[in-house]
Design brief:
Keywords: Membrane, Signal, Transmembrane, Transmembrane helix. By secondary structure, the chain is mainly alpha-helical. It folds into two domains: 253 residues, no CATH class; 80 residues, Histidine kinase-like ATPase, C-terminal domain (Heat Shock Protein 90), CATH 3.30.565.10. A three-stranded mixed β-sheet has the order 4-6-7, with no helix packed on it. Strands 1-2 form a two-stranded antiparallel sheet. The longest helix has 74 residues. The radius of gyration is 38 Å and the shape is elongated.
């Protein structure tokens, strides 16, 4: 009918859009009467564990809002102080919310979502009781007073209809917020059961309450059922689908990163072994020659030294990963800069000048050798890369700076 049309016209294409947009994730899910689920039990278990961690925060905020909201609403109607029963729905709502808040704070995380579903159903019943309670008070105020009763003669049904409509509108807003909490905690079996029970309670109340006229039951009752119970779970299903798609994307990213790191580790190990084999073959070849110290073998010796330098860098793979993740911890130790630079420049035609020489022969400097080596190695490589194409003629000057600093130029 009319009331059901607009929500479906808006929500179903929206749901279809998100299903198409998240097609890789949708292919890994199944859909049932209580929402989407991952086909793989491991994925579903991991997703539910994450949902349960966030459900406690949502439940605490939700129950606190209801508890404080009831108290504020009661304080806003103090002019009804001579009706002590007027505040019964507010007091009951605050008490139920306070008890539920205590339960949520103390219970295990697996109990939170079922407890919240029970609380939502209780809120639904309390909201309907509030509609009946305040409609009856309005009726009594108007028609128990002889003067007012005489003034309102002939318009009793209209006034009763307006009072019931106003209270049902307020209940619609409360129930919409009430059932919308499932969009933040996830939509599962307990949430689906709570939605069905809420719809049954509303239907039974509208059909049985003598204060609800047929006109109000048709116009406001249908709106209350649709926007109070059906639309929020539909929105919750879409929200849950989005969270599942995001979780699936994160999961695939983590798996891809893990696989990439594993493949990189294998490649790093293979490359290091290959360079070791190549350096060993060169060394055996040079030693087998009649005059292994001859200058004609200098290029081969430089190549062998470059291979050994590459093997050392392969051993620092974890350092590069930590640098990329931004969690590298600097580890300083005392080193001899002359020996350090000799190992760093081995296999390269690079002239290194220490000034004054005596200082660097006798003093040790506290640095992070891995981080310093990475910086200087890239600096030297860039100097060769962007220098003269035939004869780069790269030189390195190391001298004392201000205080305990050292300048490398």
């Amino acid at each position: 009918g009319k009331p059901l049309g607009p929500p479906l016209v808006v929500m179903l294409p929206l749901l279809r859009f998100f299903m198409v947009a998240g097609e890789p994730a949708i292919s890994e899910m199944t859909f049932s009467w209580y929402g989407f689920r991952f086909k793989g039990p491991e994925n579903e278990r991991a997703f539910q564990d994450r949902e349960q961690r966030s459900a406690r925060t949502v439940a605490i905020g939700f129950t606190t809002i209801f508890m404080l909201g009831s108290l504020v609403a009661a304080c806003g109607n103090l002019y009804h102080a001579h009706y002590w029963t007027y505040y019964a729905p507010y007091i009951t709502q605050s008490a139920v919310a306070a008890l539920m808040l205590c339960l949520i704070l103390m219970c295990h995380k697996r109990i939170i979502r079922p407890a919240l579903a029970v609380f939502v159903v209780l809120n639904c019943g309390l909201a309907l009781w509030g509609v009946h309670h305040f409609t009856k008070i309005s009726y009594d105020e108007l028609f128990t007073d002889p003067v007012r009763s005489q003034q309102m003669r002939g318009s009793e049904e209209y006034i009763l209809q307006m009072a019931a409509s106003s209270n049902l509108n307020a209940a619609t807003g409360i129930l919409f917020f009430n059932f919308s909490v499932f969009g933040y905690t996830g939509f599962g079996k307990q949430e689906a059961i709570a939605t069905v029970l809420g719809s049954v309670l509303i239907t039974v109340y509208i059909l049985t309450d003598s204060l609800i006229t047929p006109a109000v039951a048709y116009s406001k009752g249908a709106t209350l059922i649709i926007f109070g119970t059906f639309v929020p779970p539909l929105c919750s299903t879409v929200t849950s689908l989005l969270r599942r798609e995001y979780f699936f994307a994160q999961l695939m990213s983590e798996k891809g990163l893990h696989a990439s790191n594993k493949a990189d580790s294998i490649l790093n190990h293979t490359l290091k072994n290959t360079m070791a084999d190549a350096a060993g073959e060169i060394e055996l070849f040079i030693e087998a020659q009649p005059n292994p110290t001859s200058q004609e073998y200098a290029p081969l010796k430089q190549s062998m030294a470059a291979l050994h330098r590459g093997m050392r860098w392969c051993q620092h793979r974890q350092v590069y990963l930590n640098l990329a993740y931004g969690n590298y911890q600097v580890t300083k130790r005392a080193i001899c800069l002359m020996q350090f630079m000799s190992e760093l420049t081995s296999g390269r035609k690079l002239q290194t000048t220490f000034s004054p020489l005596r200082l660097f022969q006798t003093c040790a400097f506290t640095v992070d050798p891995i981080l310093l080596g990475l910086i200087l190695d890239n600096t030297i490589a860039n100097a060769y890369k962007h220098g003269h194409s035939v004869n780069p003629d790269v030189e390195c000057f190391i001298m004392p700076g201000s205080g305990s600093n050292v300048i490398v130029q």
